[in-house]
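Researcher: We're teaching a course module on how sequence relates to structure. For the next exercise, students receive a sequence and then see the predicted structure as tokens, so they can try to spot secondary structure elements on their own. Here is the exercise chain.
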Amino acid sequence: MLAALLDIDPSEVRLYNLASFVDMVESGVSDDRDLRIFEIGWNGLTVRVWAAHPLFLTDDASLLGKWAELYADIASSAAAEAIRRAQY
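Model: And here is the predicted structure for the students to work with:
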């Protein structure tokens, strides 16, 4: 399926850093447990890096809503940071 989506030969598909939903929730630090599945980098109890292009094999449609919410927050923070830098 991934090879077809990416239009590449199936032998070229590489999967890495795989984790179960439970593992991601348990290792995350966000107050919102649903957002923990998008965390990929931390500094103590602060999320420093969020997944830019997550790939999930699930039938839970609510995750798409969480991703949209998180992506909007990330974009807003990036815009605010760019404005702050431009002012100085």
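Model: If you want an answer key for the exercise: The first strand starts at residue 39 and ends at 43. Residues 18-87 form one domain.
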